Amino acid sequence: MTAAPPDVKSLKKWEDAFQYPIPQVRQLERQLQTELSSNKMKLRGLVGESYRDLLQTAERIIDMDASAQKAERNLAETSRSCNSRLLDKKARNLKIFEERVGAGDRKKYIFASQLAVLQNCPSVISRLLPNSKGDSCLLATKVFVVSRLLLKSLSQQGPIPLLNSLKVQIAALRSFLLQHIDTLLSTPYLPIEQLVPALSSFSLSKTSSCADVLRHFLFVRSTAISSILAELSVPSAEAILKALLLFNQTLQNAQGLFPKTLSESLLQLKSQSLLQDPGLLSLAELGLDSNGRWLPEQVREFIPWVRHDDLERSRVVEQGKSWAAKELEVLNTAFEKSLQGIEDIRELVTLRGNILGLWRAGRKGRREFLQKGERFRDLATARLAEVLGAKIDGLVAVGRELGELLKGVDGESKDYSISLWSSSLSSMGLANGGSAFKEAVQSCVLGRDSPVKAFGKKHEKWLSSIADSATVIRGLKAPSASSAEDEDDFDAEEERIQEGIEDAVYVEKKIGESLDTAYSNLQEVVGELVERLETSEAKEPNKENATMMRAAFLLRAIRQIRQNPPKRDDDSLIALSWFGTILVPRLHALVAISVGKKSFVSVKRLLEDRKWSGKLASKTLWEGTPPLPVQPSPLVFKFLHDLATDMHKVGDDVWTPMAVKCIKGRASKHLWQALEGVLEDREIVEATITNGSTNNAQPKEPKPEPEPEPENQPEHAPKTNGNAENSDDSEHPNHETEHKEADTNEASGNKSNGASEPTADVKLNRRDDNYSRKVIGKDWAIQLLFDTLYLDEALLRKGANAGNSGITSLAGKVESAVGTELGFDEELRRRLEGGAREYWKRTCLLFALLS
Length: 851
Known about the structure:
elongated; two-stranded antiparallel ribbon; mainly alpha; single chain; two-stranded parallel ribbon
């Protein structure tokens, strides 16, 4: 293994390196060469950096030498130039030159300089005026004053052809300058630092004092406000806000600028001559650096003369108050016109908020000039109430639509009479959550046919507009975004919130009053429709179906109106429990007149044609000791079934408890009249059955009676149904034949039973027939008593809550007659009542609408 080379630093001289073996010497050589290369590179880097520094130092030394030589030359030249004797010599030479050489041309130089400056003035003014800044306008005014001075100076030197043309140009520029100043003064958003130069421009151009400037400033702002409001025949909301902003800024400017700020600006104009103004000297077109010294002394030394101390603060306040009162009345009038052109509630509320916010924002600026006189809030609130009242009055259109729809309703409207169990409903698709199916079910249950749906859409549209408007009005109570000024002033913020609450309460009160009036008018419209139906029913009794359906339509419309009052969110704006309460009973009466009319006629004929002296076939079904009837006769069932069927045709939703009570009362009245006509002057006799033959016990000798009317003579109809029943009788002459099958066991019972008995039938001749019209058998009387008690349960009485009625009176009459003649006691009567009550409980569901 090769030993490590010696340390180079330990060697004293180069010969010591060769004392080691050759491999170690070679390693030592390589080590030395490596270190030598490394040191060489380091040295080269150090030398390069130092070289660059040396070069820069050399260049800096050369520059310093050149600067020093230049400074020495300048000092030498300055020293020579500052020689007083040399300067005196130059001054003497210049004076001699001017006296000998330039004296003849001085006037020419003065004239040429004035004319040169004057010729350039129009172009300079035309260039400066289009700028919308106040300082540019003031500079243009200064140029105009210089041009006016030069015109005056040149006019004194005799006629000059070019001067007339320049006069025309300067005169035109004067009007253009004044118009531009008025435009700047009427700009709403012109900052104060630009408005002051514009006011100074007017004062400088017309040599006006501070008082004149204030007067002109207020006049320009008044003209600007009027022009903004007069752009359209009806001022827009933007115009109102722009005019109000200009109104606020005018008072704010009057408070901040007059008289102190404007006086200081005018005083600054008088502090130096006009041609010493830096702005004029900077205009290269005028060439004042070369032409200025040749201008006449009265031009060069001209100082503007304007009064700056003739306006006091009290006078500013007085003029501001007068101006503010006049312009505020103009704004009130314009705002009122603008409100009259707006029909949208949201737009009105937005405009109200904007204009009141802008009015509050300018409170500090007008505090010194104006305290009251603003009617923006009152006008906006009144207009809101007026627009809402007009929207609410749209309910009259709903009433007219109701009348138009009523004309199209006839007796064939049966869109809702489809059964809930029909195949058309069960096979209906359930897409979109079954909306179509639910709508069809609701139409069936609530009787929503095409006219009712059309009215519902019209009514819902009106309700939606009222609900949206009421929601917007409620938004007045909610705190709105306040301005920075309101955030700093807690009293102002509280006042703003309180104003919103008060206005909302006022408008809501007006909404309630308008809704009360509108629904009262709608009730009057519906009342007129009801009166027409009543009149048409009395004049045209043959159209009772159309009258019935129209009355049902009005009942549904009234129900829809009462169940859907105007709402805001979930709160009702008005209670409508009173609506239609005086009309609903009349409509129920109209429906009841037509419903069951055929049933009334049918039961009356069957009662008249019944063989009351014959055998009662259903007596075999009697129960108890002694036997008593336990179920009514088929005629009663048929009557109740037909009545319930007719009620269903009108629509199940029509039959509220009040309507059912009405139809039951009418049915009771008709049955009472029919039974009273049948039982009138009849005597109850005993009828016994022996060996299949009927032995009629002869009653006591009756009093002579008039001859009976012919059979084909029409019956007397009840007073309440008059012509309607007579017409129905005439239309159905074979009504008895149609209903014989339904009353087979009663009307034909004697014949069928008599044919089956071995004994001979009792043959009645005409005299016997007349006799049977004057009597009624005991069995028939008892069955009739049970029928009347059953009908009383069905039509009037409700179990224990029994009440007196026509049928109850009839039952009492029959009971009295049977008890007097045949020994009918109190116990049997109670049995009949209990049987009728229990049987009605078992069968009431067969006549659902009547139960």
